[in-house]
Amino acid sequence: MSNSDSSINSSSGSSVIDASTPVQKIPVLIVGAGPVGLFEAVLLTRMGIHVRVIEREPEIAPMSRALGTHVRSLEILSLVEEGFIDKFLAQGRPLVDAHMFYGSRPMCAMPVTSINTSKFEWPLFMEQERLAKILEKDLAEMGVYVEYGWELTDTEAVESTGGTEESYAKTVIRRTIAPEGQEHELKVVRSEYLIAADGGRSTVRHKINVQFPGRTLPFRTIMFDGAIETDMEKHEISAVVGVNRKTVVFFHMHDNIYRIVLEHGQFAPNDDLDQVNRDLTVEDFERNVRACLHPGTEFKVLSKLWLICFRVNERRAENYVHKGRIFLVGDAAHVHSPAGGQGMNTGLQDAYNLAWKLGLVMNKLAPATLLQSYHEERQPMADRAIALSSALMARARDGGLINHYMKRVFMILSPLLAKIGIAVFPPAANMLEIRYPANDINLPHKTQKQPNNVAHQVGARAPDGPLLCLLPASKDPSPVDKNKATSVEKNCVFVHDVIVGVGRFHILVLVSNSLVDPASLQERQEALAKSIKDNLSQWRTRWHFITVQGDKPDNQLFKLHVVATGTLSDSHRNGLLAQCAQGDGRLFWDCSEEVHTAFGVPAKAKGRSSMSEGAIVVVRPDSHIGFRVQGLDKSAWRDVTEYFETILA
């Protein structure tokens, strides 16, 4: 920073500001450079929003609290842009099995999670630090760099006084500039919005006086990272029901480095956590782990990276949005036990939910009232994560002798349970069934009934499924294609491969088998093509902004995709099927009818002359269903336009 842009205060670390303190104006200030804050910065930057990211620590935290990225989080990472997910997959390992032990005795391997409906079959085992570094690098490639060593000392939402000036967030930040810590550089940041991703002890949350109700559990948990030596079988995950009724879990991080989480009894009323940690030694840890194992089992610590005793807090902020200007995300908004790996994953989804809404508002495409839906939709997801992690933690805890015998019965039956597909974590751990309530952005149709299946209703995650992409026949067809009017890509794509792009609505036009009916093919296709052309043109003229997709400017807020089904060979009889532009130039074929079924749309049209068959489904930028209407006639398209008018300015 230039000298003209800085101010020195040398009064023993004081944060007193005066008229000489420099003021910086910026659209968005993000406090905290963990995975959640970095992901928020990546998303907003891709939507053309200028952000500043500050982090109190001197670097990305080398100790990773989170180790797994769940299936739903992998999905939202894949939605950023085509190929974005690849850099994460390259750094992690599929988390397939957990090996169950009674003491030192191996019992079976059980799947970590149950079969799901995503293209990602398994969670990804990857330390939080690696995920954060990938996001930081992506951000740097877009010209945004994390400013380490800056801490927030105060913040407030300054409300408009009724004049021309709007409200804003006023924040005081500082960094140490003398080794002794006695001198600081101070700045005042005036931002349109502030996003607090500064962890469970959030300074922002305290400064704006948002309550954080909940409970602190009385149980001790020891967490260790380091190298070990043992004659037990080593696996990615080893869950041990101890012979002493306690539970210990081994996670293989990399090389010979393991994370070990050990149940360690209850706190006494007068116990001091800080003193417990000062007294905790490697020898104590080794002794407590060995007590879980059968006598004679070798276990020794070779080196220690981290050893800490903690107790679990289960808390959630009363409000995620403060005066329309300050937002809480991730651990700043909710904390709970690490059981089930819900914490960082819930935070990443907080970031995605907030980013597209904030991007639309700041690009003058939506009213500021849209931002309140962030709290309405995400706070219940924190309650869900707390309940799930609490239940998993209670299941592992020493619950007395009867509970211990029940665990032993489970261990005896575990090989059978594994064979029938019973998983370590319940399906909810995948986070795929999350559904937001009906509101203006999850808008039920005004006259049509919602589908009976909640997975098809507005607010639900858009389901995934395989599709073939039909392309116009090549100008110089091969002998194989010579008698065909269309060609087919060799590899199938998935719905979630198609609905990519930050801050973008995707309109899925599911036409069932209506386009392969020879009696009405040309009539239906011409009517459909006209509806698509007219409505896309109307929407894109009224609402557009610049986003960054694959380093190329793209002002299309809407993408439209036609999905048809039927016998594929029928499509070859008429070149109009793929030659005619459909939406954004591609026609997707639902060969197995799986996608139509997943969206609750009949795969076989009953009528021939009308456009009453099929459905239009609007997928929000975060891949939740925002609106759906049965039929493809003029009234259906009008209803879609009215839906956009309820959200967009």
UniProtKB/TrEMBL annotation:
Pfam families: FAD_binding_3, Phe_hydrox_dim
InterPro entries: FAD-bd, FAD/NAD-bd_sf, Phe_hydrox_C_dim_dom, PHOX_C_sf, RIFMO-like, Thioredoxin-like_sf
Residues annotated as domain FAD-binding: 26-387
Keyword tags: FAD, Flavoprotein, Oxidoreductase
Domain Phenol hydroxylase-like C-terminal dimerisation: 495-648
KW Flavoprotein (keyword) present: yes
Cofactor(s) of this protein: FAD
Superkingdom of this protein's organism: Eukaryota
A single GO molecular function term of this UniProt record: oxidoreductase activity, acting on paired donors, with incorporation or reduction of molecular oxygen, NAD(P)H as one donor, and incorporation of one atom of oxygen
Annotated coiled-coil segments of the chain: none
Family annotation (Gene3D superfamilies): 3.30.70.2450, 3.40.30.20, FAD/NAD(P)-binding domain
Entry similarity comment: Belongs to the PheA/TfdB FAD monooxygenase family.
Protein name, per record: FAD-binding domain-containing protein
Organism: Podila minutissima
